[in-house]
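Case study 2.
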Amino acid sequence: MVTLGKKVPDFQLKDGNGYEHTLKHYAGKWVVLYFYPKDNTPGCTTEAIQFTALEKDFLKVHAKVFGISKDSCESHKKFTNDHSLKVDLLADPDGVIVEEYGAWGEKNLYGKKSMGIVRITAIIAPDQSLAYVFYKVKADGHAAEVLEKINELKGAA
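Prediction:
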């Protein structure tokens, strides 16, 4: 499990186009990993669209944003195309990275408990240490909240 203030392990995950992304490729930049349950669902769509809308603002602070779920690369490609997303969505079908970041857990939907991806977002600093984690994320407005936190963390550095 990743620990606040400590270096995070590298990963190799593919996006909707089959391109492989590794964390080490983004050394020297801020990296946002937002974990979400399922492509093309209302909350996940809202979150992805809002991160896309702020893409230029994230680039200005030298931050790369990734959405991660257990959906397939093909599902990510369709989701991206359906909503003109600019955020890279990474497939973690085995849930290795999802579990490493603590994004797998018990969910309660309409009184029914099940296991699945819980919404969390990790901010990784340019030195590839875990700088901040948002738990119990609400999709609407979260992208702006993450951008604000990066600006705050940059100011403290």
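The beta strands are 12-14, 20-22, 30-35, 63-69, 88-91, 104-109, 112-117, 120-124, 130-134.
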